[in-house]
Amino acid sequence: MSTAETISRTGRLNMSATRRGIGLMLPAAGLMAVLTVVPVIAVLERALTSTEAFGQLFDAPNFGRTMLNTLVWTLVSVAGALLIGYAAALLLRSPFLRLRGAWRGLFMIPWIIPGVVGATVWSWSLSSDYGLVNHWLMQAGVIQQPIAWLSNPDVVLYAVALIQIWTTAPFVMLMVSAALTGIPAERYEAAKLDGASGRQILAYIVLPAIRSTTWIAVLTLVTWALNSFTIIWVTTSGGPAGASTILPILLYEAFQRGDQSMVSAIAVLQLAICAVFVAIYARAMRSDLEELS
């Protein structure tokens, strides 16, 4: 068989494999389209046919506070999960750490357990009457009297954000740990030979190498934060006096009232906010690809 015939046969085989792969993916892709695209179109249609709902939403007395709560909630929970997840991933790669697998398993527990269970346990732990958190802090001499974590409007949003951090930090740890394994050991060795400190290795080798992973983690965390419901609803139901109400809680309250137009308006607002972050992520990834090329 000549070289041209071999190339032609290989091309036909590749084309056949590609078609077979597309055929196998079509059922799943069609199902995903039905479950994702159709509901989005339905929500957009309902929101656009009831434009007065947007006016009611923006004129609501608690709308400004809800948006501020959503912003604070997102920033605190995302930043906290990134910091703790990064620290845990770097710690797990330390050569001085023993029983690395056991520590990794323990760190994964918050992400594995059901959200309702975790929120309920934290609700008990943060109780101002019998909570373990106040008990431990008082025993350590950090505080002199119990703190009303879930009933004080000044601290409740940060308290529930800590629960969100506790839940999502293991995801960041997994993502960063996987990315760190892709960094060649030769880079670390060359940096050490050049006299680089640990901080310089982190700043000039580790962080640039896992920048794409960081952007993916940030986008995922922001999406989770903007759609988070279980933690806040189980612990505070958006209270006290709306101090922990964010957009998903506002949407659920509209749903309880049977106000479908308001539900659609809030859903479209959430979709628009998420689209902004997706656009930022796409631009950042395109910049990274341009730098690599």
Number of helical segments? Answer: 13
Strand content: under 5%
- Helix and strand content put the structural class at mainly alpha
Q: What's the N-to-C terminus distance?
A: 38 Å
* Helix percent band: over 70%
What string, H for helix and E for strand, traces the elements in order?
HHHHHHHHHHHHH
Radius of gyration: 24 Å
User: Mind summarizing the main beta sheet?
Assistant: none
Number of strands: 0
Low-confidence stretches: none
The overall pLDDT average reads: 84
Shape: globular
Describe the structure.
- The chain has 293 residues and is an all-alpha fold.
- 78% of the residues lie in helices and 0% in strands.
- It has helices at residues 3-49, 52-59, 63-92, 100-112, 115-125, 132-139, 156-180, 185-193, 198-209, 211-226, 230-235, 247-257, 260-292.
- Helix 3 runs parallel beside helix 7.
- The longest helix is centred in the N-terminal third of the chain and has 47 residues, at 3-49.
- The mean pLDDT is 84.
Describe the SSE topology.
Elements: H1 3-49, H2 52-59, H3 63-92, H4 100-112, H5 115-125, H6 132-139, H7 156-180, H8 185-193, H9 198-209, H10 211-226, H11 230-235, H12 247-257, H13 260-292
Helix pairs in contact: 1-13, 2-13, 3-7, 3-10, 4-7, 7-10, 10-13, 12-13
Main traits of this protein?
mainly alpha
What can be said about this structure in brief?
It contains 13 helices and no strands. It is mainly alpha-helical and 293 residues long.
